[in-house]
Design a protein that fits this description.
CATH superfamily of the largest domain: P-loop containing nucleotide triphosphate hydrolases
Strand content: 25-35%
CATH topology of the largest domain: Rossmann fold
Number of strands: 21
Shape: globular
Number of helices: 11
Distance between the termini: 82 Å
Largest sheet: 9 strands, mixed
Number of domains: 3
Mean pLDDT: 86
Helix content: 10-25%
Strand order of the largest sheet: 6-5-7-8-4-9-10-11-12
Length: 469
Amino acid sequence: MARNTRRFVCQSCGAIASKWSGRCDACGEWNTITEEAGEVSGVGAGPGAAIPRGRRIDLVGLKGDSPELPRMTAGIDEFDRATGGGLVPGSAILVGGDPGIGKSTLLLQALAAIARKGEPVVYISGEEAVAQVRLRARRMGLDDSGVLLAAETNLADILATLESGPPPTAVVIDSIQTVWSPAIEAAPGTVSQVRATAQGLIRFAKARGVCVILVGHVTKDGQIAGPRVVEHMVDTVLYFEGERGHQFRILRAVKNRFGPTDEIGVFEMTGAGLAEVSNPSRLFLGDRGTDTPGSAVFAGIEGTRPLLVEIQALVAATTLGTPRRAVVGWDQSRLAMVLAVLDAHCGLAFGGHDVYLNVAGGLKIREPAADLAVAAALVSSLCGVALPGGTVYFGEASLSGSLRSVSQTEARLKEAAKLGFTGAVIASAGSAAAPERGGPMTVDHVDNLAGLVARIAASGSGRTRRSGS
């Protein structure tokens, strides 16, 4: 006779254990293992159960004509850019971000823009009541857009409602951690519930050609909570980033089966909702001080968009036995590598100094091309020499102290010239892609970080330096 078994599942990583323990052996988290209902076992189930005979499927070759993927644009350029050009029917999108960052606001604005085009859209909230969502929509001027609204967490009721009439164009589920399935004996938000409810919604999206957008909570490490298998099941994973103290928000695509990854959309939080930022480079450089030591402008690439951002560094003498290393917006291990290279190959001693590094505007940089700009900011702060205000920096540093060229050099230089910059310092290996030029943009090449240090020291001769440097 078939019976239900019990199993112990880690709520952090989804690992299954044979018995309860205080610490998960797979991810190392404490107090995350809970008991849940397992698979049905016994006669007619389990490994010994007979597999039903399937039907034959048709096999086709790689060569052939396939129709173009239709897309529904929201009319919000930054949102459409991050999604790869618009919403694809039958796709599943997972949106994650910190609490209060603006996920619900952004998706409500996107649905309202689609609804104003005459398309049916549905917003289902599992965290807020209908009155709360209506209040937000009224504040942003979206209450007349025609978005259909409901507050429900039962997966069976949600699917029955969506399948009862004509399929909508897009559905937002806010959030997937609050939805539960009556077929699973577990609390909402557990690994079993998140996996089952996400699979049911994705199956509905593929069968009816509806774009389903799932909102996901994030952990303290910034990763989407729940099993990682959900990120593999969906077609697109978007992260909504930003610092609570800044008004800027970044919508970043880390996975997209229908478009480029690492594409970003930039927004500004206002009293009437999220406003698009058409020129983020000018926004991030708006309050930059050009005569301050420790400030360097990095010309980066986010997806297909060139983006200029200010990197700020502060190097100060420390009284601690272990110097402090604080980083905001960049990889801390990457900073440790750059400091080690400057110490070993350039003769700069950072061992007796605290180092603080900040990427202005709340942007998070993941590109190794920022090594040269970070090194320039660190050397400038240590020596007390301000860098030239009209110069940008980009290049990747190696452990030997040499510099490597990076891709899309021309796009970076064009963006810098458009914003009024007159010079650039890049790796010498990139000279073939960006030759020396006169006129509005002058490109200087450096072979290694030692050459960069010598250039900064030479530019500081005759200037006022910080006392004691």
